[in-house]
Design goal:
Blueprint: E1 2-4, E2 10-12, H1 22-36, H2 45-64, H3 73-83, H4 87-100, H5 108-114, H6 130-162, H7 171-185, E3 192-193, E4 196-197, H8 201-207, H9 211-216, H10 223-237, H11 241-246, E5 251-252, E6 264-270, E7 280-286, H12 293-313, E8 323-325, E9 338-341, E10 344-347, H13 352-359, H14 367-378, H15 387-395, H16 399-423, E11 428-429, E12 438-439, E13 444-445, E14 473-475, H17 480-493, H18 499-505, H19 507-520, H20 522-529, H21 534-545
Helix pairs in contact: 3-5, 6-7, 6-10, 6-12, 7-8, 10-13, 10-14, 17-19, 17-20
Protein name: Integrase
Organism: Streptomyces justiciae
Length: 550
C-alpha cells in the first residue's frame, strides 16, 4: 500500500515481506491503511514510517517465537519485557499496543495484555537553571548577531556596487562583483583552477582572506548560525525543533511598519501529531524594540532575505523561515528534516543544532531542555500541548517546578485550614438546651470561662457573631429562627455595601450560617423563618449594629 501526505511525500509499504501468517499480514495492512487515510490519525509519512519500523520489528520477534499466526498475551508480554528497558522502547511498546488493539480478532487475554499501562521512566532531561539558560541564550545571540551584522554590511555594499557608487577596480568594487554573483546564484563566480574552486589573489585580498567558505557566506547564514537562530526561536516561543524547522515566513498583519519596529507578525505553527483539526495555531508577535519577540523575527527576515531571493530565483519554495547556505557546495541528498535547493538548506538538518551546541561546550543540542525551561518555568503554560500533557510530562517531572511548588502548596494548605476555621460551623448541634449552659444572642455557651477564640482573656471576649465558630457553643431548635433571620439580614447587606467591604466584614459569618443551614436542612430552615419574633428582629439588629460588643 502507498501512503502520501499533504506535503507531497509518499512511501510504499509491502506487508507481504513481514514474516507472519498471511491472515495477520492482511489484518495489519487493513488497520494500517485505515490510519493512513485522511483523518485516520497519521497525517505525515513520518508517522506511518515510524509505525512500519515498529511493526516490522515485532513481526520478526513473532517469527522468532514461532508464533507467526496470532498475537497472544504471552508473546506480547515477552516482547514488552524485551523492549521497555529504555524510554524509546517504552514509547514503541505503547504506540504498537494502541495499533494492535484495533484488531477485532484478538483474544480477551491478548487484548487485556495490550491494554496494560506502560509506565514512564523518570525524566532524563531537566530544565536549565537560570544561569545555564542565560549562558546558552547569550551564546546563541552572539552567534546570530555576528551573522546579522555581516549580512547587513554586505547587503549595503552590494547595493552601493549596483548603484555604481564603487570605483571600478577598487577593493569595494571587487567585493561587490563577488556579492552580485552570490546574490544571483548563491555561489561564487566560476573560479575553477585545475578542477578546484580557488579565490584569485586580488579578490581574496579584497575579501580579506578566509578562502572560499568565508566568501560564500557573506550574504547568507551558515549552518551553525541557523542553529543558533533556532535556539533563540525556541527560547523565545517555547516551540519544539520540528515546529521551528517547519516554521513558515510570518505574515505582517499591521500597517504601522513593514519588517521593522512597529510591525506585528503572525506566526503559523504546526503540531503534526494533533491531526488536521488541531494541527495548526497562530500567534501574533510585535516588534516594539530590543528584546521584543517581534524584533527577533525582524532580524531573521533581514538575515535570510538574500538566501530567500536565491531560492525563489531557482524555482524553490522559499516559504520556510530558516534558510541557510551549506559551508561547501555539496549536492548531497536531503534528509527528512531538511530540504535543499542548490547550496541552500531549508529548515533544520540532521545534527545541525547538536553540532552547534557541542561547539559552545554543551554536550549536544540544547533545544529540548530550552523548551522545557521556557514552558515550565517561564511561560508556565502549555506550548502546543494539552494541559494534561503539560502537567504530567513537563511540570510534574521537573525538579525545579516541584521545588517552586512547595511554598505555594504550603500556603494553600494554610489558607484551606484558615478557610475551614472561618467557613465551617464548629458549634455543636443539639436537640434541646442544657440548663447549665449560658444563653447568648444566637446560641448557648457551655463554657464561657475558657473560650478557644480568646484563650488569653479571662472569659470569652469574642463577638456573639463568632458563636457559630466556637466549639463551646450549642445550637438547638430554639435558636433556628434567629439564625435564619441573621442569615437573611447579612445576605441583604450584599446589595447595599461595596463587595470588598461586605466580604471582609460579613463574608465569613454568612459562610458559617450557610454551613449551618445545610446541616439543619432547607425545610426546617425555611420553617424557622416563619417563627421569627419581634424580639428576634430587635436582638439581631442590635447584634449587627455592634451594640452587644460595647
Amino acid at each position: 500500500m502507498r501512503h502520501e501526505d499533504g506535503r507531497g511525500r509518499s512511501r510504499v509499504y509491502d506487508f507481504a515481506e513481514l514474516p507472519v501468517a498471511e491472515g495477520l499480514q492482511q489484518m495489519w495492512a487493513t488497520l494500517f491503511a485505515a490510519r493512513c487515510r485522511p483523518g485516520g490519525g497519521w497525517e505525515s509519512v513520518l508517522s506511518s514510517t515510524s509505525m512500519w519500523l515498529n511493526l516490522r520489528r515485532f513481526a520478526f520477534f513473532l517469527a522468532a517465537q514461532e508464533r507467526a499466526d496470532a498475537v497472544s498475551a504471552g508473546v506480547w508480554n515477552a516482547y514488552r519485557m524485551a523492549r521497555q528497558q529504555t524510554a524509546t522502547g517504552r514509547n514503541e511498546v505503547a504506540v504498537l499496543a494502541s495499533f494492535l488493539r484495533s484488531d477485532p480478532a484478538l483474544t480477551a487475554s491478548a487484548r487485556e495484555a495490550l491494554s496494560r499501562r506502560v509506565m514512564r521512566l523518570p525524566a532524563k532531561e531537566e530544565a536549565f537553571s537560570p544561569q545555564e539558560f542565560d549562558q546558552v541564550r547569550a551564546a546563541a545571540r552572539r552567534t546570530f548577531r555576528a551573522a546579522v551584522l555581516r549580512i547587513e554590511h554586505n547587503a549595503a555594499l552590494l547595493a552601493a556596487w549596483r548603484s555604481g557608487a564603487c570605483q571600478q577596480g577598487s577593493p569595494d568594487w571587487l567585493v561587490g562583483e563577488v556579492l552580485d554573483a552570490l546574490a544571483q546564484t548563491g555561489r561564487l563566480p566560476p573560479w575553477e583552477v585545475d578542477g578546484y574552486v580557488r579565490v584569485p589573489y586580488r579578490y581574496g585580498k579584497a575579501l580579506g582572506g578566509g578562502g572560499v567558505v568565508a566568501a560564500s557566506q557573506r550574504l547568507f547564514l551558515s549552518p551553525g548560525e541557523a542553529a543558533a537562530l533556532a535556539v533563540l526561536l525556541v527560547a523565545e516561543f517555547g516551540l519544539n525543533a520540528t515546529t521551528v524547522s517547519d516554521l513558515r515566513v510570518p505574515r505582517i498583519v499591521s500597517a504601522a511598519a513593514e519588517r521593522g519596529p512597529g510591525a506585528v507578525y503572525r506566526l503559523e505553527l504546526e503540531k503534526r501529531r494533533r491531526g488536521n483539526r488541531l494541527s495548526t495555531e497562530t500567534r501574533n508577535v510585535a516588534d516594539w524594540g530590543a528584546d521584543s519577540p517581534g524584533r527577533l523575527i525582524t532580524q531573521t527576515l533581514h538575515a535570510t532575505g538574500p538566501a530567500r531571493t536565491c531560492v525563489e530565483a531557482a524555482g524553490g519554495d522559499a516559504g520556510r523561515l530558516l534558510i541557510w547556505r551549506e559551508a561547501t557546495d555539496s549536492r548531497r541528498r536531503a534528509t527528512w528534516q531538511g530540504l535543499r535547493v542548490g547550496p541552500f538548506g531549508l529548515g533544520l538538518a540532521d545534527n545541525q543544532v547538536d553540532r552547534w551546541g557541542r561547539s559552545q561546550g554543551w554536550p549536544g543540542s540544547p533545544l529540548r531542555r530550552i523548551r522545557r525551561t521556557v514552558n515550565v518555568l517561564h511561560r508556565q503554560e502549555p506550548g502546543q500541548n494539552s494541559q494534561d500533557t503539560h502537567d504530567v510530562v513537563y511540570v510534574l517531572r521537573e525538579p525545579q517546578a516541584r521545588q517552586a511548588a512547595v511554598p505555594v502548596i504550603a500556603a494553600g494548605v494554610a489558607a484551606a485550614v484558615e478557610a475551614a476555621r472561618t467557613a465551617l460551623v464548629r458549634a455543636r448541634l443539639t436537640d434541646a438546651g442544657d440548663p447549665g449552659d449560658q444563653m447568648t444572642v444566637i446560641a448557648d455557651c457551655a463554657d464561657f470561662t475558657h473560650s478557644p477564640l480568646t484563650p488569653e482573656a479571662d472569659g470569652c471576649a469574642a463577638s456573639f457573631m463568632m458563636c457559630t465558630a466556637c466549639p463551646n457553643a450549642r445550637v438547638h431548635p430554639g435558636h433556628h429562627a434567629r439564625l435564619a433571620h441573621l442569615h437573611r439580614a447579612i445576605s441583604n447587606l450584599r446589595a447595599v455595601l461595596p463587595l470588598e467591604s461586605w466580604e471582609r466584614d460579613w463574608g465569613p459569618a454568612l459562610a458559617r450560617l450557610e454551613d449551618l443551614r445545610n446541616r439543619i436542612g432547607t425545610g426546617p430552615w425555611q420553617h424557622a423563618l416563619t417563627r421569627v419574633s419581634d424580639a428576634d428582629r430587635d436582638d439581631i439588629a442590635s447584634l449587627m449594629k455592634g451594640h452587644f460588643d460595647q
